[in-house]
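LOG
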Amino acid sequence: MSKHDEARRAFLVGVAAGAVTGAGLAGKALAEAHDETAAIPAHAAGHGAFFNDDDALTIAAFAERLMPGAPGKPGARDADVLNYIDLALAGAYADLQDFYRRGLAQLDAQCRAAYGMPFAKLDVARQDEVIAALEQGKATGFLWPTAQSFFATLRTHTMEGMFADPIYGGNKDFAGWRLVGFPGAQPLFTPEDLASRQAYRAAIVGLHAQAKG
């Protein structure tokens, strides 16, 4: 993993650690936003609720560059962020469908004009160049959504897919929670647990397990 990748991961993990432990990404905001999403069945290929195959490849590649995986460190593909965003756009985030369609079309047009191929087929160095141009508002050809708003939305949804409860389709096998040491939606902690200065070692619990109980 390059130093650039490490820095990006460190930033997102640091932000997520505070949000998750403060019940941000895992708590009230997402629960309110995704009541509909939880009822949508996941698709075996990681998409199919909203994205077509080409758009799914673009989103998967983009999210992986935002949160790249490494040996022993899960990334966006490992956490199935694509599935999370796909399900969200077919449910609770349905109002953003046109935003994504237009953003992806503009991204595709820019990459084809600059490099002769779509984003998903670029090497990682060029993908990072494209993402940096979006973040800095320097990407040409973006009208609505703007380059910066498209980048910011995709980054936010990537973080949600990494660190929200798996019931919403991402954070596969608790990949994101394991990364930040979050124990999940534990029903209770004993006085000994609360007094301990050691990392909590019990099995991670998600909302799905609570609902079964």
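LOG (cont.) second protein
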Amino acid sequence: MIHSKEIRVIDEDKNQIGILPVSEALSLAKEKGLDLVEIAPQASPPVCRIMDYGKYLYELHKKAQEARKHQKQIQVKEIKFRPKISIHDYNFKVRHVQRFLEEGNKVKITVMLRGREKSKPELADKILKRVLEDVKDLGQQDGNVRIQPWAVSTFLSALKTGGKDAKTKNAPRSEKEVQSNSEEKSPSQ
């Protein structure tokens, strides 16, 4: 579907053939058993290449897949609190929030309300403010607080992104360190 009368043609070895009429370029491509693919339609004249179109699509797909592989995927993690949460449970969940933010993920903080708690959303707001205060060095509020009849929630995003690499999480240990661990375990047998 080339709309121009004349095109700049490049052969399968990426050598420039020259400016040809479309019909002549198509016949040249059919002689070689390949396709004529327009690769730069905005150029003047448009640039077309003689190539295997299926192979070209495969290469484009592989390049896109490779680019996606090197991108960091940011996940949204959710932590749920209750207005009458115990101190231990609160600290445990805040540590999870801190770990998620350190990894570069977004965190959704939800304070669940049940029964008579629904008539007092300020209890949930108090918990949210406390969590925000406890993780202010790692993350910040992203967007507004969302109030629903059964819950109050907000999102936190990490101040610095990048996350931990798999290599740093599971760093290889030195041979001496591995041997010292095995020596400690052997006398107890």
